[in-house]
Amino acid sequence: MMIALLIVVSLGIVAAVGIILHEQQKVKRILSQKTSTQEQSHRKAEEVANQTAAINLIADHIDQTKLSEIMSSHVISIPVDAPFSEVARMMRQNDIRHLPIVDDRSKLVGIITQRMLYQIRSPRKLIDGEWYYDEDILNDVILKNVMEKEVVSLQPYHSVGKALMKMTYSRCGGIPSVEDDHTLVGIVTRNDILKFAARIFQNKKQ
């Protein structure tokens, strides 16, 4: 009888110990999960802080850098009295999408974009997949009659940040740069600004 009682008691103790150990494991798992969650939150906070610092650095550079430092000064332009077929040829030949238009004194008088060109006259697709423009059909169009005359332009001393704001709110992908007398001296595109921001970010990582 005494032995049976001891066995029962022993089994009870073992069961109790088992329950205690199980509960301890549960507590450890909960604590581990909390620690893991805290570590993840900490890492996330660090990532956000690093991203914010990078954005602030880029914003500062964009606001402090002049257009003259990143714009294309060897800007490709077209005379206002040029045949309209020259627009398509120059865009294709130079792989550009924004073409400033100047008068005989190199003063900016307008701009035409690839999107405008496609809206005015769509190219035909050949069997080999190449796009083709019929020059005679294009030359039925008079450039000065279809160009954008209200050109968004800036001067070389303006900031890259100002150009970015103009692009955003005026919905233009390229901004000609002119002197006080409207002489064309350059152009900056959205791609120029993206490359500039990428260089800043890359230099920061190094």
Pairing-aware structural class of the strands and helices? alpha+beta
Radius of gyration: 34 Å
Strand order of the largest sheet: 1-2-3
Seen as an oligomer or otherwise, the chain set is: single chain
The best one-word shape is: elongated
Strand residue percentage: 5-15%
SSE topology string:
HEHEEHEEHHHEEH
Low-confidence stretches: 2-18
| Secondary structure tally, helices | 7
Mean pLDDT, nearest integer?
81
Number of strands: 7
Main beta sheet: 3 strands, mixed
- Please give the share of residues in helix: 55-70%
Termini separation comes to: 80 Å
Describe the model.
- 56% of the residues lie in helices and 14% in strands.
- The protein is an alpha+beta fold.
- It has a 3-stranded mixed beta sheet with strand order 1-2-3. It has a two-stranded antiparallel ribbon with strand order 4-5.
- The model is unreliable at 2-18 (pLDDT under 50).
